[in-house]
TrEMBL record:
This is Nodulation protein L. Keywords: Acyltransferase, Nodulation, Repeat, Transferase. It holds the Pfam family Mac. Belongs to the transferase hexapeptide repeat family. It comes from the Bacteria. GO terms for molecular function: acetyltransferase activity; O-acyltransferase activity. One of its GO terms (cellular component) is cytosol. The lineage of its organism: Bacteria, Pseudomonadati, Pseudomonadota, Alphaproteobacteria, Hyphomicrobiales.
């Protein structure tokens, strides 16, 4: 088991988001998002530099169109040539990996944050995270929601508005709510 609440968060264990270290990380991310989202009309090179300041990894040629929202940023790893359109949200309490050449439509939500099923643990303010992995050359349509713990394999297609609750195999198309492979 991890020691501090921050270490517990990164390890995917139950943690308290009210912890001062976690709150400081959240505040730093909020300040960064204000700068990044305010740079919508700035040259791409400036936005690239801002992404490199906060995200865990940013592959060559990756683009995130502001506005963009995340919990922390440092748990997000983008491969080369990744594209996120306007208004995407990534709740990155644990790692989010997005493979080379993946394209993500506007308004997509990628969520690693989860909450205990036990009502007493929820009432105590505890939460945990489950990582999300998105492979190479994936297309995720506008407004899709990717839930905690999901893996989407290479070359998959996720339909607009889909709610992805389970892993999606390589090359598959997943559509609907809940998303089903077709």
């Amino acid at each position: 088991m991890a020691g501090t609440e921050f270490e517990k968060m990164l390890a995917g264990e139950l943690y308290s988001a009210a912890d001062p270290e976690i709150q400081a990380c959240s505040a730093a991310a909020a300040q960064w998002m204000a700068r990044y989202n305010g740079a919508l009309g700035a040259p791409q090179a400036m936005r690239d530099a801002l992404l490199a300041q906060r995200l865990g990894a940013v592959g060559d040629g990756s683009v995130i169109r502001p506005p963009f929202h995340c919990d922390y940023g440092f748990n997000i790893r983008l491969g080369a040539g990744v594209f996120l359109n306007f208004n995407c949200v990534i709740l990155d309490v644990v790692e989010v990996r997005i493979g080379d050449g993946t394209q993500i439509g506007p308004g997509v939500q990628i969520l690693t944050a989860d909450h205990p099923r036990d009502p007493r643990e929820r009432a105590a303010g505890l939460e945990f995270g489950r990582p999300v992995t998105i492979g190479r050359n994936v297309w995720i349509g506008a407004g899709a929601i990717i839930l905690p713990g999901v893996t989407i394999a290479d070359d998959a297609l996720i339909g607009a508005g889909a709610v992805v609750t389970k892993d999606v195999p390589k090359g598959a198309k997943a559509l609907g709510n809940p998303a089903r492979v077709v």
